[in-house]
């Protein structure tokens, strides 16, 4: 316990940012689209990995768990420049409305933030026009990040189960 207290006291001092190699706090804004293809085809980017016995009869798919690896693009077209990947899980977590619990990492693969990640967790009530979820961390340029992501469905095809979602992200980081 004494060792832990000493570490906390040291890091809580004025030089904790310096000791972690952090610079000045800044705000960044990102705008991108993700393409979620939840079909049973070779092009699928989201796969159902588990579901409850009652999921199939639920109007909200309550109890369904999916794993996702979606491309992030600059524009809404799937042919737009790929700037990263959205990887993680989402689960249908409401018995009343179609709402997802999402735990995701956004890996950026080009530009100023190449190799950096953002971690997002939150509730996504997909039928709402704009949904807000929390940025709770990151790596690389986004170490100790915090902020929020606003998601808006750009297009949805329920027959092919293909969705394009527009994202605006505000990040406070060092």
Descriptive account of the structure:
By secondary structure, the protein is mainly beta. It has an eight-stranded antiparallel barrel. The two termini are 30 Å apart. It is 9% helix and 52% strand.
Quickly give the structural class.
mainly beta
- Which stretches of 5+ consecutive residues score pLDDT under 50? 1-6
Amino- and carboxy-terminal Cα gap: 30 Å
**Sheet with the most strands, sense and barrel status:** 8 strands, antiparallel, barrel
* Average pLDDT score: 91
The CATH superfamily name is Allene oxide cyclase-like
Radius of gyration: 19 Å
Shape: globular
> Into which percent range does the helicity of residues fall?
under 10%
The assigned CATH architecture is Beta Barrel
Strand-and-helix sequence, N→C?
HHEEEEEEEEE
Provide the CATH top-level class: Mainly Beta
The number of distinct β-strands equals: 9
Ordered list of secondary-structure elements with their pairings:
Blueprint lengths: L1 H11 L3 H4 L6 E12 L8 E5 L14 E9 L8 E11 L6 E10 L8 E9 L4 E10 L6 E12 L4 E12 L1
Antiparallel strand pairs: 1-3, 1-9, 2-3, 3-4, 4-5, 5-6, 6-7, 7-8, 8-9
């Amino acid at each position: 316990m004494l060792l832990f207290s000493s570490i906390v006291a040291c890091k809580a001092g004025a030089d904790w940012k310096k000791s972690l190699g952090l610079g000045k706090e800044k705000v960044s804004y990102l705008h991108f689209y993700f393409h979620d293809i939840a079909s049973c085809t070779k092009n699928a980017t989201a796969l159902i990995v588990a579901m409850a016995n009652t999921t199939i009869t639920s109007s909200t798919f309550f109890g369904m768990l999916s794993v996702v690896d979606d491309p992030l693009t600059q524009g809404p077209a799937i042919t737009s420049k790929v700037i990263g990947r959205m990887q993680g899980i989402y689960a249908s977590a409401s018995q009343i409305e179609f709402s997802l619990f999402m735990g995701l990492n956004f890996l950026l693969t080009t530009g100023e933030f190449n190799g950096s990640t953002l971690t997002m967790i939150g509730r996504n009530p997909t039928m709402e026009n704009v949904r807000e979820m929390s940025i709770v961390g990151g790596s690389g340029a986004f170490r100790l990040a915090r902020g929020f992501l606003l998601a808006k469905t750009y297009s949805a095809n329920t027959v092919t189960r293909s969705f394009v979602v527009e994202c605006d992200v505000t990040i406070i980081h060092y």
